[in-house]
Amino acid sequence: MPRVLIVAYGNPLRSDDGVGWVVADELHRRLASPEVEVVRLQQLLPEVAESVSRVETAIFVDASRDGDPGDIRCQPVAAPPARIQFSHQLSPAEVLGLASQLYGATPQALCVTLAGECFEHGEGLSEKVAARLPLLAAAAEQLTKKILAGPLASSLPSQEDEAAS
Amino acid sequence: MGEAVKQGRTIVIDPVTRIEGHSKITLHLDEDGAVEEARFHVTQFRGFEKFCEGRPFYEMPSLMARICGICPVSHLIASAKACDALLAVTIPPTAEKLRRIFGLAQVVQSHALSLFHLSSPDLLLGMDADPAKSNLFGVAEENPELARDGIRLRQFGQEIIERLGGKRIHPAWIVPGGVSEPLTEVNRDAILSAIPDALGIVERTLEWFKGRMENFREEIASFGNFPTMFMGIVKQDNGLTFYDGKIRIIDAAGKVVADALDPKRYFDYIGEKVEPWSYMKSTYYKPVGFPDGIYRVGPLARLNVADRCGTPRADQELAEFHELQRTAVLSSFHYHHARLVEMLYCVERMEQLLNDSEILSQRVRAVARPNALEGVGACEAPRGTLFHHYKIDEQGLIRWCNLVIATGHNNLAMNRSILQVAKHFVRGNHLTPGMLNRVEAVIRTYDPCLSCSTHALGEMALRIELLSPSGELLDEVARG
Fold this sequence. Notes:
The complex is a heterodimer.
Chain A: E1 4-9, H1 19-30, E2 36-41, H2 47-52, E3 57-64, E4 72-76, H3 92-103, E5 108-115, H4 127-149, H5 152-155
Chain B: E1 3-7, E2 10-14, E3 23-29, E4 35-42, H1 48-51, H2 60-65, H3 72-87, H4 93-125, H5 136-142, H6 144-165, E5 174-175, E6 178-179, H7 185-212, H8 217-222, E7 229-234, E8 246-250, E9 256-261, H9 266-269, E10 270-273, E11 282-285, E12 295-296, H10 299-305, H11 312-322, H12 335-354, E13 374-381, E14 384-392, E15 398-404, H13 406-409, H14 411-425, H15 433-446, E16 462-467, E17 473-479
Parallel strand pairs in B: 7-12
Antiparallel strand pairs in B: 1-2, 2-3, 3-4, 5-6, 7-8, 8-9, 10-11, 13-14, 14-15, 16-17
Helix pairs in contact in B: 3-4, 4-5, 4-6, 4-12, 5-6, 6-7, 7-12, 10-12, 11-12, 14-15
């Protein structure tokens, strides 16, 4: 049974939005272990809540539109907002909210993002994002190993922007 | 709910929420504020028919699957069947059964998305519920078992697709001539072991839904409740099918209008019309003409045209469904009910197919070069009948492509349904969220997939209207 679930999501046909998928491939190779599960998704759907409810920690990896291209951020995922207009795509916080509401699970959760530069149609990453990819993979890898090795609370960042940017 | 803006004598709901894709609705009011016209505008644009020209035909299944993230399997099946026709091969029986299972799994996950994730807030909390709570979170709060069931049932369908196709979205397992890999014993047993749970979910949701119908009398009476024809593919014995068969059309009285039509000759009896206010084409039954040749497809139509399901529990439910009305079941509100009966059939039918003695056969693909320059593939997608029609040159490159998509078949009926609901519920001088939610909810009954249905390029007319605050047309620019 995995203890850590890494959910890398985005659209790999939208240039930098696919950065999560590239990192997922790398993490899958580096973190091969029954304690870690890595999944690649185009978007966060309600089903993810059930998967998240079964682990101790969920790490969401995504491209971000916020910040300067190449910025890497690691933030704890907070409680869901009070008002949610759900179509069929959720935010990490909403996934956590559903996991709690439906399955009574309150796993720790983090969101690791890399700010993208280009979100137009295309399968490649922009230069700035591609250059930061090794750092993003290393940050997610270290974070996962820390979580697996130590007490959960001490391994999680308490403020925004924990990872190097 | 989408934002509603009143512009003079026009109410615009933009975007329409809890559907697949992007659209808006305009309601045109008379001087007393009563609705006199309504339109469903599909505002997104794709163009697949055009940009696949010049591609090798064997790429088509994978390319076409990209049309949609919800029903890629239907496009894979219709496309592969069109390619089978280009190869002029009969695919191995096991390949056909595996394709059927693949398609049934997709119907389950797609119907579950529509019913549980998109429409259950209306069905559970009511049409007048606080818009802030009318979503999956509101359902989770009020009835967590229902929300969990929806999640589990979608997972069930998605996991089968993943086990067969290697991934959940855009699997490329179905290929011209059959499927690329046989089913393993491990995967067969894993799917079979999940079936009792899935059956239990569908059974209890059906009972729950039937118990709720009493609360929606007014909606049943006014949600697309008007006479139209209904069209669907049926088996030779007029049984329900999603994979292959003949086209059957019935009228509102339930009488057969056309039977045993060849899906490969769809162009003989289905016409397509472009409207200036939408990127989605409207289809009609040619012998009757436009717009009187209006018909509906999808779950409601399939159950109306089918005499039987061919699985024990679904047959019982179909008989009960047919009792809803002596004629064909006309109200589009019953699309929800039909979706549940179909999910029951899908789970039962998958179990039958997985227990077939040949299902683990290694012979799953026929290999050939192109032997025909034109091919049509048809199947029943979750939302209705789907046609893929290709023409290739001697090198096997696509020279022409036409896609007739389920949501397009329902375009005329969706527009008429919006008008019916709006006339019944909306008063322009006093708008309430419940009124406007009903206008959106009638669209949700059809579960339109707009990503699928906006693929034509170069033939779409466009009209831009400039309206005065009082709703008068001041200027107009038209193309096409």
